[in-house]
Amino acid sequence: MPNCRLRRVTHHMRTTVGTIAFVLLLPRSLAGVQMPALPERPSWTVGDVDGELSFGALTDVARLGDGRVVVLDEPSFRLWLLHPDGRLAGMNGAEGNGPGRFAIPIAVATADSELFVLDQGASRVSVWAARADGLHHTRDLPLPGLFSDLCVMKSRIYLLGLWRGDAVHELGRDGRLLSSFDSIPPAEHGDFIAEEERGYQSAGRLVCDDRSGVVAVAPTMRGTLRAYGGDGRLRWRTVIPEFFEARLKPTGTGYRMSPDPATGRVTQTESSGIWSEGIWVQVRELDPAGGREPGELRSWSIDPATGRVTRLPVLPRLLLVDESWVFGESEGVVPRLSAWRIRRD
After folding, report:
1. How many distinct helices (H) and strands (E) make up the chain?
2. Which of 41, 135, 238, 341 is the most exposed place for a label (fewest CB within 10 A)?
3. Domain count, the chain
């Protein structure tokens, strides 16, 4: 299914493509958007080849209520638990299908004192309790199919993935399906390209914004974001500028991906999340022929109430932004996690 393939391509990209190793002092405003002020150097950076913190990939990051940081590392099937200052606090996980093990872990989210890990390979959400002595696996929530992301809002778990004609699915903390929305029109029988396009529309990033009550879908290979209220009603659609969508063309044995016909370019969504002004999305231009390194990241801020898009300055690949900290990936021979404390001027 496209959900599985696209998500894993995104993460392998993250393990090989470096990002900006520093952040400049950002302007306090840009086209009406208030920017967080970051120091030039991060408060801490972790990740090396031979030390105790050697990441295979920075697949996803979450921050617990007490300030500890959880790093999901898909290639090592591991959850790294870090103290607020970046020191290692513990490790959990291993490859497998048993309790506390992972097949293809691809996303994490937190709510209250619980951590939710989307294990795409095992079709389940693995739930962990965050306690003073570390993370403890408590239960697994089985899923009916393949999903590419999850987020948590107001005691509800939201999943992104095409199932029974809808792309977004709301679950209770007990795993019970409460509702589905973001309908993807069915393809005509035998129209293989249209069926693949449905997968493209339903694979990518999912963002939950507690303040506005918005659940937003950012497809990996499509430039139109869709935002819904918690009731499943469409709030807005917005197009990311300079997003060049790949096209699917039939071949004798199936289909192939082709660049945007007008420009010969292809763009991919790399990361997204919530910050003080709403939703941030980062995209990167790819080389359709695979002969050169991908282009630099472009960052955008989206107003969750209106869908208005504003260009942001050059930033590293962001992993998490909250009221006090920015976490991003720094350049190196191995993935390195950096943390910047937001300045309050």
Report:
1. 2, 28
2. 41
3. 1
